[in-house]
Amino acid sequence: MNFMAFLQSALYVISESLLYPVMTIILILFCLVIFRSGEILAEGLRRRTIKIPEPGDAASFLGPAANVAAIEAASSAVRKFLKDVRSIPDSAPKDLHVAYRLQESEEHMNWELGKIRRLIRLGPMLGLMATLIPMGQALAALTEGEMQKMANSMIIAFTATVVGLFIAGVSFVLSQYKARWISEDRRAMELLAEVLIADREPRPR
């Protein structure tokens, strides 16, 4: 066996061994997309009733005059941000701690969005892998005259493509909703942070 034949055999064995792990991961991603869809649907229903802080009513979310009902009506991300900034000691530099909490909240929201956006790329990539590997098997079966084996391999190839594209398509739609909600929460938290910092700045006499 020459070196080229050895390489071809090695690559064929590697690709064959990847088929079942790739198909398993595609199935896991499909279940994950269904789960994420339920999460986004539930969050969308909750956000119909939430209250977004605006410049005119920011005081109702902060300080001694904070309205408990208004805070409870805010989104979970805004509520967590308010809980974090209220835990800052009065002796601590408020502007630095508020800016840190704001950045921390933004990083967490971006990380949550990234979990959905990764599926947009992983779905087609793994779907393509699960398409090309069976097609190689189908070509090998064709040369041997095994038509049933070729048909089974082609079925796997096309179904993997469909499932991979489904994962990417649904994930893209979910990411659009999630990105819009994150933008709303970020704007609300930035407003509250500015109000908090302004309240701690010394006023001119």
Question: Which tags fit this structure?
Answer:
205 residues, single chain, mainly alpha
Q: How do the helices and strands follow one another from N- to C-terminus?
A: HHHHH
Content of β-strand: under 5%
Inertia-based shape? elongated
Please report the distance between the alpha carbons of the first and last residues: 92 Å
Structural classification:
mainly alpha
- What percent of residues adopt helix (DSSP H or I)? over 70%
Uncertain residue ranges: 201-205
Topology, number of strands:
0
Number of helices: 5
Q: Roughly what is the average pLDDT, rounded to an integer?
A: 83
Main sheet attributes: strand count, strand direction, barrel closure:
none
Question: Measured on Cα atoms, how large is the radius of gyration?
Answer: 26 Å
Question: Could you please describe the fold and organization of this structure?
Answer:
The protein is mainly α and 205 residues long. The protein has five helices and no strands. It has helices at 3-47, 68-72, 76-86, 94-143, 147-200. The protein is elongated. The model is unreliable at 201-205 (pLDDT under 50).
In short:
This protein is mainly α and about 200 residues long.
